[in-house]
Amino acid sequence: xxxxxxxxxxxxxxxxxxTLNYLDGEYKxxxxxEIREGLSALQKYIPCKYFYDARGLKLFEEICQLPEYYPTxxxxxxxxxxxxxxxxxxxxxxxxELGSGANLKIRILLDAVDKSIRATLRYIPVDISxxxxxxxxxxxxxxYPELQVLGIVADFTSQLDVIPTERxxxxxxxxxxxxxMEEDETISFLQSISENMKTDxxxxxxxxxxxxxxxxxxxxxxxxxxxxEFNKNILNVLNNELNxxxxxxxxxxxxxxxxxxxxxxMHLRAxxxxxxxxxxxxxxxxxxxDETIHTENSRKFTGKSIKxxxxxxxxxxxxxxxxxxxxxxxxxxxxxxxxNG
Length: 341
Prior knowledge:
By secondary structure, the protein is of the alpha/beta class. The chain has helices at about 25-40, 55-65, 70-85, 105-110, 115-120, 130-145, 185-195, 215-220, 225-240, 305-310, and strands spanning about 5-10, 15-20, 95-100, 120-125, 150-155, 170-175, 200-210, 250-260, 265-270, 275-280, 285, 290-300, 315-320, 330-335.
């Protein structure tokens, strides 16, 4: 059940941002259940959605500015070129961002239309982090006071049905976040989006493409160590949310490209024998030196794999945009007309 909450937007000409929270107490139950399951597995893991507390969000914004991290700047370069085409005839519609982060990409879309059109648009950020939803909403309203905003605190991987559908919308799933999912999970997720789409709706997805091992591994092992801090910060999230006593300095950042799966794997590797207590879920877990916690996958795609994903999910590819080097692709999908009915 949702509970609307009012959020003061400070300098914004609008006094309030409407935020609907569909997690409430369920978040504590979900994180406890998922972390218990993950830390009890043979290969310990932590779901990557728990990276993004307030500090994690700021660290990721830093990562996006790093010279080694090509995905963000490449995706933005494509967006700048195609935004006028994407936003053509976009009045009276909703932009739904799945996973609200740094809002530069959404700003590129909004800047592609004039103020009178923006006044008819509604921006809907969807994220499990209430602070991320509020901060993104506040920042955009300060820049575009004419914009309508509805923040939704929810897990977009399982709660797509809470998104309003009374107006035509464009789902935005950017940053190759889709690469964080396993293949079966990706198909299921895209199918759930397809089932929520109407004829006039669109889905804009960012895909990081397969390239050399050296290029990809450098992007996740930056010389300043920001990605390492981001990776370790997930332990601070567990400390705060589950009253755990992880010491991030007892773990080292590990990121490597697996050619078997066309993906980067990120892990935290114990640099000593460790015992950790998570009091909120009454769990104690042991780590042997060099044992790892798997924190994230980032799959890389080919043209064939993207077309296969779309087809299996009941989607049709409407437009495909890439940079000159073919490092990144932005793909516009619609619901497959043959599956409507």
